[in-house]
């Protein structure tokens, strides 16, 4: 058990104890149902207590859980007839971003999102969910295609940030991100974004210029990781927990500041505990957002997006 996940340690130990009792009851042919029921009730109460009092750093750890549902997981559970499209028509195909056409409750939509892996081999293949410029150019190509055929766009954000390597910079990483920000601002179709895990820096914002921004309850959205901020501010990445608290990166903080529109509740313990139920909850928020935006004209959609970002950072001066 790593120190970073220590807040969940009592829950994990109790789950292990329950499993041990089940195995013992099965192998020894002994009725231990009452003892197991008692421990399960204790586990339920413990989960409610711990998960309802999470600190920002705790939420960072849940957002990074390797079993947390990814973009492709949500696409499989929420959409139908998904056809993945590849390549930026310029350099190549970046597997850190996936996208394509699908149906949402019978309505054709374009779905785009960061894609990380759940195991080492897949993470290497997906570059740990950190896109190269061709990934952002692929995303923009699909967005412009969606605009041409008047399809709403749904984006899933889940990245530590854009890949900072030499090759990415040589191929125009910053220009690709800037181009996405510029083009997304003027899209004439509804755009909805959901932060499903980590939303880091410009790598996240390149898919985040939208009409509606939702965040899963235990996701994060920030200009830099807590470790990166701690390294800059205090020259010590070990102070990441302190940085997470100061940065206001949780959904709860961002909702209070008006940066996001809605917090999507997660199942107890995090989205990875019950992906099926979590997908159904997320689907209801997407449906609500699409219903609101579909009633707008093209001009109203662009104006709505402009006003959304124009209001971020508003403040009122009070005379002393």
Automatic annotation (TrEMBL):
It is found in: Cytoplasm. Pathway: Lipid metabolism; malonyl-CoA biosynthesis; malonyl-CoA from acetyl-CoA: step 1/1. Residues 38-292 form the CoA carboxyltransferase C-terminal domain. It is an enzyme of class 2 (transferase). Pfam families: ACCA (PF03255). It catalyses: N(6)-carboxybiotinyl-L-lysyl-[protein] + acetyl-CoA = N(6)-biotinyl-L-lysyl-[protein] + malonyl-CoA. Residues 11-49 form a coiled coil. Keywords: ATP-binding, Coiled coil, Cytoplasm, Fatty acid biosynthesis, Fatty acid metabolism, Ligase, Lipid biosynthesis, Lipid metabolism, Nucleotide-binding, Transferase. SUPFAM superfamilies: ClpP/crotonase (SSF52096). Its EC number is 2.1.3.15. Its main location: cytoplasm. One of its GO terms (molecular function) is acetyl-CoA carboxylase activity. GO terms for biological process: fatty acid biosynthetic process; malonyl-CoA biosynthetic process. Gene3D superfamilies: 2-enoyl-CoA Hydratase, Chain A, domain 1. Component of the acetyl coenzyme A carboxylase (ACC) complex. First, biotin carboxylase catalyzes the carboxylation of biotin on its carrier protein (BCCP) and then the CO(2) group is transferred by the carboxyltransferase to acetyl-CoA to form malonyl-CoA. Belongs to the AccA family. This is Acetyl-coenzyme A carboxylase carboxyl transferase subunit alpha. It comes from Ureibacillus terrenus.
